[in-house]
Amino acid sequence: MVNWNSGLRRALFTFLTLFFLAYVVPGLSAYTVTHLLWVSLLSAFLATVGESFVLADAPGEQRILLFGVSALTIYFYAFVFLRERLPVVSVLLAAGLIAVLDYYLPRVHVDTGAGRGMAGEGDAEPGPGQSEQPGQSEQPGQPEQPE
Question: How many helices (H) and strands (E) does the chain have?
């Protein structure tokens, strides 16, 4: 199954990385904002779909795949659509930074409220009459049940 949240996160990392590197690294300034948006979406889509075809489950395999797909997408997008040959070192630097950002930046945990996270594990406080451990009663006057 394809994880589209990671695809959107990768598209954001790719866009921001290429946007800031376009000011510093020679050759990447050929991309306009529109081209940056297209190349980031295309790179993220190909890397995310590629994970399901290659069955890259380990984080290291996912980052290597992201590095390769990002480098090829950045280079060939500029070669085909912009008619420019980017320096290979600039492309590898940008792809490496995208993969490092995707690996080291933490994943966002969305809290849906009511004591449940996205995975559905309940971490709410026990209510009245409920105990934290099964077999124990919190109400006074009731004997504990043996296990």
Answer: 4, 0
Query: Which DSSP state fits 109?
Result: P
In a domain, 110, yes or no: no
Can you read off the two tokens belonging to residue 16? 């921001």
Residue 131 inside a domain? The answer is no
pLDDT the model gives residue 144 = 61
* Digit-coded pLDDT (tens) for 40-66: 999 989 988 888 888 777 877 888 888
Residue position matching structure tokens 């946007």: 19
How many whole angstroms separate alpha carbon 60 and alpha carbon 97?
A: 14
Report residue 147's pLDDT band, with 50, 70 and 90 as the boundaries.
Answer: low
Separation CA 25–CA 2 (nearest Å): 33
The dihedrals phi and psi of 82, each to the nearest 5 degrees, come to -95, -10
Predicted pLDDT at 38:
94
Q: Is residue 115 part of a domain?
A: no
- pTM of the model as a whole: 0.67
Residues spanned by the domain of 70: 15-104
